[in-house]
Design a protein that fits this description.
The structure holds 2 protein chains of 2 kinds.
Chain A (H helix, E strand, L loop, with lengths): L1 H27 L1 H39 L3 E6 L25 H4 L3 E9 L3 E5 L2 E11 L3 H4 L4 E4 L4 H5 L4 E5 H6 L10 E4 L2 E9 L16 E5 H7 L5 E7 L5 H15 L10 E5 H44 L1 H9 L4 H41 L12 H28 L2 H6 L2
Helix pairs in contact in A: 1-11, 2-9, 2-11, 2-12, 9-11, 9-12, 11-12
Chain B lengths: L3 H5 L2 E14 L2 E14 L3 E6 L5 H8 L7 E6 L2 E2 L5 H11 E4 L11 H10 L8 H11 L15 H13 L5 E5 L7 H16 L3 E5 L3 H6 L2 E6 L2 E7 L3 H16 L1
Parallel strand pairs in B: 3-8, 3-9, 6-7, 7-8
Antiparallel strand pairs in B: 1-2, 1-4, 4-5, 9-10
Helix pairs in contact in B: 4-5, 4-6, 5-6, 6-7
Classes of the chains: A alpha+beta, B alpha/beta.
């Protein structure tokens, strides 16, 4: 125990002096230190930036999913990948509104559902202003309880709107501005073709959910489901459902699938002609993509750090040969091998840590730049300020520390093995 | 309590038939060829000899930087010949103070930090290192310039810092290798006066030199030749010894 304490004290003494010496050594050779650690700096900067950006993106996506509802299930028609209906026309596998009748009674895990009329884009007019390609969606009132998209103004689509097939609509906040409607536009009307729709509410704008679509000219109008059928002859029908809790999403999906197969009179061997999916699947997909990206980044960065490590080794070897006399002197005044070894190891670790610290600084700057790319390209899409997560900082520090030890070991052993007499005679 | 006289008699170094053989290719060079020597406490010895006489090797062996090929070396009553490398490092740290011709100060450290350096490696000097470094710098006459770096000091001041560093662990013996070799004669004299003062204070000193006037300061002069002790006489007979040596050489030539 005492021997252990003593060894610890010796180490602490050495540690203090070595860190002091290492820092003064680095300070004395600033340019050299910068050039040496540049590999480490770049490596750490890129890996922390990638991790930070992905983490930020993940939080953002999670927020979006949270709003869409983690227990939300989407039901859309879809051709099976095999079987006779592989080449079936969309018309034959379409959903009819009555397909979903009695669904709540047959699916105990499903809390509510809303049929949606997926309509063709239309032109919306108000006074002088006219906007083309506005997405129209026929919704039932329960839609608002499934997708928790906040209202800016007015009211939601009500049961009576739907029952009476009223010509009312919700518009998104961007369309509200674009059409130059009054600030309080409730009760004002917009023209869709030759039909007049009364605006009853304004809903918050959202970037498009479908990947690859530009949010530039993305506007949405919501109308009651039955009104949609009045506006367009048989629009494609899809449905959103919500399970009673997030945990039983998969049960609810299975129930819906069973129910719809029965409705469609499908044989047990026949593949589904529709898709029942939940956000969970997309989340899993996103997570695996993020993981792959992180792994690729880590792989690429490892090479850069390896190259950086070789640079460290090189400079430590130079340092050892430059300071041969110093090593000789230290040995002459009583430094043991282990003391010399520790000194040079600490020096290389400190060098790596300095590189890591600078790298994290650059990584944060890089992150800000990366986060601002979508902000600059896509109007209205904003990602909040992203910081490098603490675990990534700890990880990169321990990794650079390991590199310092690994690549510093050979020069340090070389220094520790020097013969003091030869070393003192060295020119 | 020992009396001063009894203390002065205590042997510090005992060498018995020490040899140091270097093998260069197939050739065997006897740098030290059977040296027997005893040094007592508070002795003030100069080791002289031409280059290649083995005086540097003797210095390295005495300083535990090098091991004797054969023979017996006892320092402070301890046999050093069978010690491990780590134990030798500790002996160097605690019992031996080195002074080098070219000072060997660390350029990035202040005079004070340079003097503190050996205490970093010592077992119990850590907490008192500042105080001990200060007092030993005072002792060598460098009370004020402790925060200066070596490149801001003159040659004499540098060597004083180096001597302070050698003394800071209170060594049994101070080994100086040509301590005035890089200094002008006036500064040399100052450094030699410092050695005289340390001797009066009770320090055991061994100086390796080839300069007569340096050897003059010592109380005992050992001449070496071909790895052997050629003569070992008190300093006041230095001149006679020199004459003898010159005679020998003349005899050898004729």
């Amino acid at each position: 125990m005492r021997a252990l304490m003593r060894a610890l004290m010796v180490f602490l003494r050495l540690f203090y002096q070595s860190v002091y010496l290492a820092l003064s050594q680095i300070w004395a050779n600033k340019t050299r230190a910068i050039l040496t650690t540049i590999g480490i700096v770049i490596g750490v900067a890129s890996v922390t930036a990638v991790i930070a950006t992905l983490t930020g993106l993940k939080t953002e996506v999670l927020n979006m999913v949270e709003e869409f509802g983690t227990n939300t299930i989407t039901i859309i028609p879809g051709r099976p990948e095999e079987g006779a209906k592989r080449f079936a026309s969309w018309w034959t596998i379409r959903f009819l509104p009555e397909h979903f009748d009695d669904m709540l009674e047959h699916c105990p895990s499903v809390a509510r559902f809303s049929r949606l009329g997926w309509m063709e884009p239309r032109t919306v007019q108000h006074g002088e202003e006219s906007v083309e390609g506005v997405k129209f969606l026929g919704i039932e009132p329960s839609y608002h309880d499934i997708v928790k998209r906040p209202m800016v103004l007015g009211r939601k689509v009500s049961v009576i709107d739907d029952m009476q097939v009223r010509q009312v609509c919700l518009i998104d906040s961007k369309l509200h501005r674009k059409l130059r409607l009054d600030r309080d536009c409730i009760g004002q009307s917009v023209l869709v073709g030759h039909q007049r729709f009364i605006v009853v509410g304004v809903i918050e704008w959202r970037p498009p959910m479908e990947p690859g679509q530009s949010p530039e000219n993305h506007y949405e109008v919501f109308i009651p489901f039955r009104t949609a059928f009045k506006l367009q002859r048989e629009p494609p029908v899809i449905a959103f459902a919500a399970s009673k809790s997030t945990e039983i999403v998969e049960d609810a999906q299975a129930e819906i699938r069973f129910f719809l197969r029965q409705k469609r009179n499908m044989k047990p061997t026949e593949p589904d002609t529709f898709e029942v999916s939940s956000v969970k699947r997309y989340m899993d997909m996103f997570n695996s993509i993020a993981l792959i990206l992180t792994l690729v980044a880590v792989g690429v960065v490892s090479i850069s750090l390896l190259v950086g490590g070789v640079g460290i080794m090189n400079i430590m070897l130079v340092s050892v040969s430059e300071r041969t006399r110093e090593i000789g002197l230290r040995k002459a005044v009583g430094a043991k091998k282990i003391a010399i070894l520790t000194q040079f190891l600490i020096e290389s670790v400190v060098l790596c840590f300095v590189g890591g610290l600078v790298g994290i600084g650059f990584g944060q700057l890089l992150t800000i730049a990366l986060v601002n790319i979508p902000r600059a390209l896509i109007e209205g899409f904003s990602m909040p300020m992203v910081y490098i997560p603490v675990w990534a900082i700890i990880l990169s520090f321990s990794f650079t520390g390991c590199i310092g030890i690994f690549f510093g070991m050979f020069p340090a052993i070389k220094a520790a093995r020097l013969d003091p007499i030869e070393a003192l005679r060295h020119e | 309590m020992q009396t001063i006289a009894a203390k002065a008699n205590k042997p510090v170094i005992r060498l018995q038939d020490v040899t140091r053989v270097y093998e260069v290719g197939v050739e065997r060079i006897h740098a030290l060829d059977g040296i027997s020597l005893a040094l007592r406490e508070n002795e003030y010895v100069a080791v002289m000899g031409a280059s290649g006489s083995g005086k540097s090797t003797l210095m390295n062996v005495l300083g535990c930087l090098d091991r004797a090929t054969s023979g017996y070396y006892e320092l402070d009553g301890q046999d050093t010949t069978r010690m491990s490398d780590a134990a030798l490092a500790r002996v160097r740290n605690e019992r031996i103070g080195f002074v080098f011709q070219s000072f060997e100060l660390l350029g990035q450290l202040s005079a004070l930090k340079n003097v503190e350096m050996p205490l970093i490696y010592s077992r119990n000097g850590w907490w008192s290192r500042r105080r001990r470094a200060d007092s030993v710098l005072e002792r060598v006459g460098l009370g004020e310039r402790v925060d200066h770096r070596p490149n801001q000091l003159s040659g004499g001041e540098k060597q004083r810092v180096a001597i302070a560093r050698a003394l800071v662990c209170e060594p049994s013996i101070l080994l100086a290798d040509e301590p005035t070799g890089n200094l002008d004669s006036k500064t040399s004299e100052g450094i030699m006066k410092l050695f005289d003062q340390l001797h009066r204070e009770g320090q055991t000193i061994v100086i390796v030199t080839h300069e007569e006037h340096v050897a003059h300061h010592a109380k005992r002069v050992i001449h070496m030749k071909d790895g052997r002790v050629y003569s070992d006489i008190p300093s006041n007979r230095n001149q006679a010894d020199k004459a003898k040596m010159q005679n020998d050489e003349r005899g050898g030539l004729s």
